Amino acid sequence: MPELPEVETVRRGLERWVVGKKFSQVRALHPRVLNPHSIAPLEVLEGARVKSVERRGKFLWFLLNRPETLVAHLGMSGQFLIQPIATGEVRHLRASFMLGSWGRSARQMQFIDQRTFGWLAVDQLQDGIPTLVQHIARDPFDQEFNRKAIIAKIASRKTQIKKALLDQSIMSGVGNIYADESLWRAKIHPESYCEELSNAQIGRVIDKARQVMAQALEVGGTSFDDLYINVNGESGYFERSLAVYGQEGEPCPRCGREIRRIIFANRSSHFCPTCQAR
Ligand SMILES: [Zn+2]
Fold first, then answer.
1. Cα(162)–Cα(192) distance, rounded to whole angstroms?
2. Where along the sequence do coiled-coil regions lie (predicted)?
């Protein structure tokens, strides 16, 4: 599932291709592409011009020259591709936005989603943030991210650290891959209770989350199963640098002990039993 580095890679690609462009034709091609909370069908955005592409955590939205905004969530397998106007059939194409006027150089922004957990929505802005993104906390790359306040918030949770890290209403952007990697880097067991951890340890987890996501962003994110690609159709290659995620049975890059996988909160958690002893 795309996490912050993958979504930011997509945002940067979209920014390059769509800012200043007009959605000259909009087509929704699958009933599930429209979020049920959308205030209108996607087609109402025909004629809107894109001012910027924004992101918070794993959510994207397009600021337009109108009060409405287009919000996107990639879900498990959503992709945006910028392509020349399609002539043949495009597999799993859920929505298409023609950019600018017809002509030889005309391009289309395509939303492709094999597993249909991704969605698009027409939404309104409240203080610059779409209604659908209001419950999402700032991510560690946000200029107004308040590290101290987040440490206090996590410390007060009566839950395990990994659950707190995945809670998008505390800090956004981190999903299963980068949670496991951050905890390994910070040498914290995923099942440690937040109240067992010192503020310094929680701070270290947050810093490592930011660090690992920044490094992933530099190489275009992690592409696990070809479902995530950037707007040019290229994969990221951070999976080569993953220390624990998907590495069950492999040696820990730090101590050589076998990486273990446990099921935790209905998802896999990967960790080193020596480096991340409880
Ligand atoms: Zn180790």
1. 8
2. none
Ligand 1 centre to CA of 150 (Å) is: 27
The tokens of 180 are what?
């496991």
Determine the distance separating the centroid of ligand 1 and the alpha carbon of 254, expressed in angstroms: 5
Tell me the C-alpha distance between 270 and 122, whole Å: 38
| Predicted confidence pLDDT, tens digits, the chain (278 residues) | 899 999 999 999 999 999 999 999 999 999 999 999 999 999 999 999 999 999 999 999 999 999 999 999 999 989 999 988 866 788 999 999 999 887 777 899 999 999 999 999 999 999 999 999 999 999 999 999 999 999 999 999 999 999 999 999 999 999 999 999 999 999 999 999 999 999 999 999 999 999 999 999 999 888 866 667 787 778 888 888 999 999 999 999 999 999 999 998 788 999 999 999 98
Q: Which residue has the tokens 């980068």?
A: 178
Which domains can be identified in the chain, with CATH numbers? Answer: 4-133 (3.20.190.10), 147-271 (1.10.8.50)
Span from the CA of 186 to the centroid of ligand 1 (angstroms):
11
- C-alpha 228 to ligand 1 mean position (Å): 29
Rounded to whole angstroms, the Cα distance separating 14 from 180 reads 28
Q: In what order do the strands lie in the sheet with 59-64?
A: 50-56, 59-64, 68-73, 119-126, 129-130
Ion ligand 1: residues, CB within 5 A, are: 252, 254-255, 272, 274-275
What's at 214, amino acid-wise?
A
- Taking the C-alpha atoms of residue 255 and residue 258, their distance in angstroms, rounded to an integer, is 9
Kindly give the distance from the C-alpha atom of residue 251 to the centroid of ligand 1, in angstroms, as a whole number: 8
